[in-house]
Amino acid sequence: MTPSFLFVPGHQAYDRLDTSGFDREWSSNGFRLLWTDDEALIVEQTKSSFSILLQDQATTTEIFVWEFGRGVVRLFRPWPGAITLYVGVARSLFLSTHLRFAAAAGHSLTPMPYSVDPGRKISIDLATRSIAHGERVQQFDDPPPPTIEDAASSIRVALDNVMGRLPAASVLLLSGGIDSAALAACIAPRQFPALTWILTPPKAGRNFHDDLAAARLVADHCKLHHSIVQLDESQFERDIDAAILLSEMRRGTFIDDAAVYLQIARGLHRQGVKNVIIGEAADDAFGCLPMNLRYYQEKELSEKLLRDLTVGAPADHAAIRKIFAHFGIDVVDPYLASGVARIGASLPLEMRVDTGRLMKPVLRTAFRHDLPPDIISRRKYVSRDVSGVQEAMARLFGSDRERFLERFNGLFKDRDAAQKQQSVLAGLDKYLSATLG
């Protein structure tokens, strides 16, 4: 899930803070900490400090420490950054896992709080509001593999290890591309169900340009139970504010996907699904988008790819998790698991870029004996493009890069942002209650 907490000055919180979204609170020395009860959170208190720890399947990590005597708060966002940690100090102090809590606390988002990078430690002096940046804990500095075969072998082992630890009855979102197909091959022994979404009716015949045809081939090959979800285009317009609010993003291409995820999450919630597997970060771990080749070369390209993997992909992943978390569903992207991402970060450019521009040659090599040849050689397609989602969203909202900026500002920055947020969330819950009833 996505645990939540908010740390603000006490006078600000007592006067204006809506605490309805929190279960617990604690105050001291003019500051107030609020948090939600969550099985992933462990709260510890001593005479001199108050700590919040994040617990997952394998580790327990301290993410928030409030040292009363020193007047210092320390934050740590562990890899892969599945939660966000926002820091705002310009006008009044704001530390939180969610941007939307700023409106409830009466905190201005101008300038915007910044998100702590995954693997980064920082400390904040509460008296001066000065920030000290610590070292990045997660370092990707493994030597490159000797050959592409060595890299492929390591990737297969690492992915099998990650997939083997996932909860039973997890659902794989399967597009039929190499990213999700590789994950399907890994879960074949455990027989997890797979789900593919469509918007426009697919063309007749085995057209592997179409996600559904490719996904069916993968599911049949791996002997997975395969469900098809028909998206409702009219629902995009009704869901758009909720997609922006839950994800706390405004980037056009991401919100196009967020509107899809919202429909998927709602449907899976009705089925009682608690865990979802996605493969969104495979491009960042093992690929190189053609667009990057136009603007970057050699060292600059390597640095850009590493930045995308260590910062960009975790930011998108955290936003996706926030959407599903509203429906009680946890999301795992195995390509962001430390053991998998480390291999991706170590790949030299020649193992990321292939002459045929199929992308991710290492991943294709790793699974060439486990998937149909048509899938191994299938070119990279963006699901929102080939499915018709991008066209549908453009008809509704235009195609400008900042087409959702005004809505984002209304939900997060306007004076009545808190009321707008409450209205959107109430509408979501009302719709969900009606469909469950």
How much helicity do the residues have?
A: 40-55%
Total helix count? 17
Low-pLDDT segments: none
Main structural class:
alpha+beta
Give the name of the CATH architecture of the largest domain: 3-Layer(aba) Sandwich
Whole-Å distance between the termini? 25 Å
Spell out the CATH superfamily of the largest domain: HUPs
Strand order of the largest sheet: 2-3-1-9-8-10
- Mean pLDDT across all amino acids: 90
Number of discrete domains: 2
CATH topology of the largest domain: Rossmann fold
User: How many beta-strand segments?
Assistant: 17
- Beta-strand residue fraction: 15-25%
The largest sheet is: 6 strands, antiparallel
Q: Give the CATH level 1 class of the largest domain.
A: Alpha Beta
**What is the alpha-carbon Rg in Å?**
22 Å
Question: Judging from the principal axes of the Cα atoms, what is the shape?
Answer: globular
Give structural notes.
- The chain is of the alpha+beta class and 437 residues long.
- It folds into 2 domains: 5-136, Glutamine Phosphoribosylpyrophosphate, subunit 1, domain 1 (4-Layer Sandwich); 148-406, Rossmann fold (3-Layer(aba) Sandwich).
- It is built from 17 helices and 17 strands.
- The protein has helices spanning 10-16, 101-104, 148-164, 178-187, 211-222, 233-247, 252-270, 282-286, 290-295, 298-325, 338-346, 361-366, 373-376, 383-386, 389-397, 405-412, 417-436; strands at 5-9, 24-28, 31-35, 41-45, 49-55, 60-67, 72-77, 86-88, 94-96, 114-115, 120-125, 131-136, 171-173, 194-198, 226-230, 275-277, 330-332.
- α6 (233-247) crosses α17 (417-436).
- The longest helix is centred in the C-terminal third of the chain and has 28 residues, at 298-325.
- The two termini are 25 Å apart.
